[in-house]
Amino acid sequence: MAMTIVVTLAGCGGGGGSTSQSPTTPGPYTTKVGIGIAGDSTVYGYTVTNGAGQQANPTAPQELQNELQARFGTGVTVDNWGIPGADSEVYIDPSKERVGPVHPTVDWLTMMATTTDQIIVIQFGINDAAFGIISPDQFKANLITMVQEAMADGKIVILETANPIAVPAGQNLPTYVEVTRTVAQELNLPLIDQYAAWTAMPNWQSYLSDGVHPTETGYIMKGLLEYSIIEPIIMKIAHQ
Questions:
Q1: Which whole-number Å values give the CA distances from 213 to 22, 67, 145, 171, 224, in the listed order?
Q2: CA separation (Å) from 106 to 3, 170, 187?
Q3: Largest CB tally within 10 Å, which of 34, 67, 97, 133?
Q4: What one-character-per-residue DSSP string does 23-58 give?
Q5: Residues β-bridged to residue 52
Q6: What crossing angle do the helices spanning 60-72 and 216-238 adopt, rounded to 10°?
Q7: What is the DSSP string of 150-163?
Q8: pLDDT at residue 104 greater than cutoff 90
């Protein structure tokens, strides 16, 4: 498996390319850090294997946790808040659930006020683009609302672009990806640019199980890219 990982930190004069290698031994850390990842079915980890839909093993959040625990120990945990079918509005207004949640409906304000997770990752765009309900301007407003509410509760917020999809419903996805990048730039937030990393590969479609949702290998790649951005942030926390 060959993959070029594009690492981007918004507001820091552009990003450089690097390949993340997972650590083999944890450092002498007692750091306790919780990470919550909000998003759609590509966060939840839906994949199709032999024609059957199921949750991947590992999901991207699971792979991220595996890598972080190998580096920092078991005090670092990752919560998977992915809701299949969710767009950016569902977390702000649970009454707008359009597909029917696998997880219970959520209220972002309550989640941010009650979660002990210090780092919040937000990844939307596929369903916002595909459903044709959330305009790019509304998508931007939704992301800003989620970011500001998380930051008001003292969270470190990271934005993440969606992986590309190979179906007609994804024709407008690049616009929503660019909105995510713009919000990260304007609010000076770290950005995990999955879309850029995937589209840099000539065979990226082969890592999708059904044209939309990654294969298990695709989810591992997503988790490794998340690790490359989040590991330095946790390192700073560990040395405070």
A1: 24, 22, 26, 16, 17
A2: 34, 26, 24
A3: 67
A4: -SS--S----EEEEEEESHHHHTEEEETTEEEE-SS
A5: 49
A6: 40
A7: HHHTT-EEEEEPPP
A8: no
Q: Where are the domains of the chain?
A: 31-238
Given a contact cutoff of 8 angstroms between Cβ atoms, the answer to whether 166 and 208 are in contact is yes
Please say whether the structural domain 31-238 has been given the CATH code 3.40.50.1110.
yes
CA 104 to centroid of chain Cα atoms: 19
pLDDT band, residue 18 (cuts 50/70/90): very low
Nearest to 158 by CA among 38, 29, 65: 38
Judge whether 9 and 190 are in contact, CB under 8 Å: yes
In sequence order, what are the residues at sequence separation of 6 or more whose Cβ sits closer than 8 angstroms to the Cβ of residue 236? none
Could you give the residue ranges of the DSSP H alpha helices within the chain?
41-44, 60-72, 88-92, 108-114, 126-131, 136-152, 173-187, 194-199, 216-238
Q: Which two tokens stand for residue 78?
A: 């990752």
pLDDT digits (tens, 9 = 90+) for 160-199: 999 999 999 889 999 999 999 999 999 999 999 999 999 9
Position 13 pLDDT exceeds 80: no
pLDDT of residue 99: 58
